[in-house]
Write a structure and sequence with these properties.
The chain has about 160 residues and is of the alpha+beta class. It has a single domain (about 1-150), classed as Gcn5-related N-acetyltransferase (GNAT) (Aminopeptidase), CATH 3.40.630. Helices cover about 30% and strands about 35% of the residues. The protein has four helices and seven strands; from the N terminus they run E-H-H-E-E-E-H-E-H-E-E. A seven-stranded mixed β-sheet has the order 1-2-3-4-5-7-6, with helices on both faces. The longest helix has 18 residues, at about 85-105. Pfam families: Acetyltransf_1 (PF00583). This is 3-oxoacyl-ACP synthase.
């Protein structure tokens, strides 16, 4: 099940973050501050048998506009659940929920952007699930080269 995060999900979501992003720290604080920034940041979790096994963070860029540019800020699935399509479900099933949230403010999705390491296999997910295309490569941004992908005129 893909659903909006609840406050009681934060510790479990932070554990997924910690396992997925080993070079990052302060997982609980990271998830908490993004949770606190709703609706600019919207976090959706993947839940299996009552356990949070993944999450996605969507971020509205450059203010609350009638045509929102979203960033897929972060996507993570617990390593024990890799290869089961949970990442794809998080993208595909949460985006209509974001669209619904935007509609409450009379806004629509215009474009979706995402950055990821140039060597991250998730690029293929972003291309196939969103129709995103690489627009630029940014050298040595975080821990390696990053690519900026944009899905233009997204229809959900």
């Amino acid at each position: 099940m893909i659903r909006l995060i609840r406050e009681e999900d934060i510790p479990a979501t932070a554990l997924v973050h910690k396992a997925a992003f080993v070079r990052q720290g302060h997982s609980q604080e990271w998830i908490q501050c993004n949770f606190n920034a709703f609706p600019r940041f919207q976090i959706y979790v993947a839940e299996l048998d009552g356990k949070v096994v993944g999450y996605i963070i969507w971020n509205q860029k450059s203010g609350f506009r009638p045509e929102a540019v979203l960033e897929l800020e972060q996507l993570a699935v617990s390593p024990d659940f890799h290869g089961q399509g949970i990442g794809r479900r998080l993208v595909v099933e949460s985006l209509p929920l974001v669209k619904q949230q935007l509609a409450e403010r009379d806004a629509v999705i215009k474009h979706v952007m995402v950055t990821t390491r140039a060597d991250n296999f998730a690029q293929e997910l972003y291309k196939s699930a969103l129709g995103a295309e690489v627009e630029a490569t940014i050298t040595n941004l975080y821990s390696a080269d990053e690519v900026l992908l944009i899905a233009r005129n997204v229809k959900v």
